[in-house]
Amino acid sequence: GDLGGAEGGSAAAAAAPPSSAPREPVSITIEERVSATLNRDGGLEAFGVSGSMAVAVAPTAAGGRVVLTLAPPPPGGFDPAFQFKTHPNIDKAAYAADGVLALKDPARPFPAGAPLGVLKWRLASAGGPEAEARLPLSVTCWPTDAGPEAVVNLEYEAAHAPCDLLDVVIAIPAPGPPSRVTSLDSGDWRYDPKRRAVLWAIDLVDESNRSGCAEFVFPASDPASFFPVEVGFHADASLAGVGVGGVAGVEGGEAVR
Length: 257
What we know:
Blueprint: E1 9-13, E2 26-38, E3 44-57, E4 66-70, E5 83-86, H1 92-98, E6 100-101, E7 116-125, H2 129-132, E8 138-146, E9 149-157, E10 165-173, E11 180-184, E12 188-192, E13 197-205, E14 211-219, E15 230-235, E16 244-249
Antiparallel strand pairs: 1-2, 2-3, 3-7, 4-6, 4-16, 5-7, 8-9, 9-14, 10-13, 10-15, 11-14, 12-13
């Protein structure tokens, strides 16, 4: 998921695309995309999450007749702010009662080979404190006119991230590379002439660096020229808390890999 730390700035990221060839009898892909827009003061203006789960079944996997059990949601169920929808062929009663994804007709197999979307979810918010509490990452940019120089302070915070964040990149518009970098808590930086932006890259944000700051010094520039800031990252968990507890054959209930 991703967040822009500037007025009008936004960004988005998604999980890596699934492998074309299933490596197990049943392959399940969960993909979630997060996008957000923050204003220059760090306030949240818009926040959205869209996710999907797809299932690919090998012909040898219980004849394609399987049942998926979702991982137990948090106490009280999934966050009610998220809207969930199952595929029309999924048994809605079993899903609602037991968190099970099974075809309405138990004699019918899942299609072999091609992934079938079985569950979708989304969240849309115009902002506010409740939405801000779900932000996995927020970034604030503080440019200062310092006479012959412009000093840009950046701060990121991942206090509400449900897991570690990977490949975090914070991009600040700039006409050229900084004159100097006076602090950098984590990661590395480089100037991308094609994007005309300074890229602050942090491979991993975990418990050791949930927040951090950097300070870049440029030749004199209009503070507004350092916006919009764009932010991107990947993660290995779902903000909606969607996961799979197990897969079993319709007949006999034996576990399927």
